[in-house]
Amino acid sequence: MGFLLLFPTIVLIFLFLVYFINKKMAKIDTTRNPPQAKNAWPVIGHLHLLGGSQLPHKVLGDMADKYGPIFTIKLGSRQALVVSNAELASECLTKNDKAFASRPKGQAFELMAYNYAVLGFSPYGDYWRQVRKIVMLEVLSQRRVEMLEHLRVSELRASIKSIYDAWVENKEDMVKVDMSHWFGELILNNLVRIILGKRFSPNDEAGVRFQVVIRKYFELLGAFVVSDYIPFLKFFDVDGYKKLMTKTANDLDEIVEGWFEEVKIKRESAPQHEGNQVLMNVLINILEGASETQFPGFDHDTVIKATCHQLLTAGVDTTSATLTWALSLLLNNPGSLKTAQAEIDKHVGRERLVEESDMKKLVYLEAIIKETMRLYPAAPLSVPHESIEDCVTGGYNIPKGTRLLVNLSKIHRDPNTWSNPHEFQPERFLTSHQNIDVKGKHFDLIPFSSGRRMCPGGILALHELRITLASLIQQFELKPPSKDPIDLSESFGITISKEMPLEVLLAPRLSPDMYGVGE
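The structure assignment produced for this chain is given below.
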């Protein structure tokens, strides 16, 4: 009888102990630290591994094979979390999106991004929120991008006619063209027309200079600057980057400032309306009605220049690099090129030029673009994030101030997700992966990243990629200049381009009038 009276009390004590033990175990589990890579050197940590001849995303990919999909490295006095699979990337960029919403401070962002005024490198806060809102709603929205289709098409046709004219002048079956340079000029002129309302003629000195400065800009953005991780060395500029970055920043600002002055002069002489407004004008109009406190820390001219700087620098290098990779892969896989050409011939034909409205029917072309961005994302190692609060990722405690590096290249080539992950197989996006897109929701493929810091130019970039690649495939026979495969070596930088120029043999496959002959 006494035992029966005590039984409820014993049960309650037991349940309490189970609850207490579970809570204690959960606390222990969520406060453990992620694995840390070995071979850190005193003071510099693992910087010596990332400053060598091998590309950083490959170094970190090899380390993931050894330590797993989540581990930390020491970058001088800083700790960085390296994430290398889709599940963990999703956790960082959804559940912990706000925790990882900021950017770390760095000499490159200070010197070459208007002291953090450029949207992509701004720390999380009121300024970043205000500029991002303007860019997403007024500058790079679906509606605004579609409204500017006529500019993209006009520029593309003018650039394609330059290839046709070179073929006529060449007086041979095919003409050799440096397509890396051609893509760069095309995308530069597209963006300059959209943002500033002007264009460069072929091999224009100012246009060539801008491309050279942009390439140097992205090389420097991808550099591991010692003083970013060992702050007391900042004064000494031991690696010489401060001098190079200051010069590149001055060169870029001189170009953008000159364009800004041109637009302001044109505004005074010509009435503006929505149909003819270039994006710099849109920004000027928005900021004319804004208070000084709306963009804390920066005057309106700096906000305008920094935003145009972001659109131009990010758009030119990443989009032209992706087009170069896509064409390189097609030339190395002529069967895929023939399939894409047959698809366009079937749905568009050769009696008219392919248009953006045709893209929804060109599913194989879309698969080529996805497969290109899977194999060669423009930024294979994400622009670093920085945690603004403590959080738990993968069951590990991640303290405030930790840098986050998402290895997109490793995720995109994960054999657990992708069969034959290193091979170019566009067909996978018509079969096993047909429902995966690149809009930041499917973490197996996030070339534009995801979450708050997702690249805002994704919509514009996809329009450019589709119509440019479709037009080239429709209008030209394309062949490599030799029987050797196209070299797919990668260059250094925060964005990864082909190391060697892409030279291609081209010959027209449509009637002369389709190239604007006689216009």
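Interim note for the steering committee: The domain at 31-515 is CATH 1.10.630.10 (Cytochrome p450). Residues 1-8, 23-28 have pLDDT under 50 and may be disordered.
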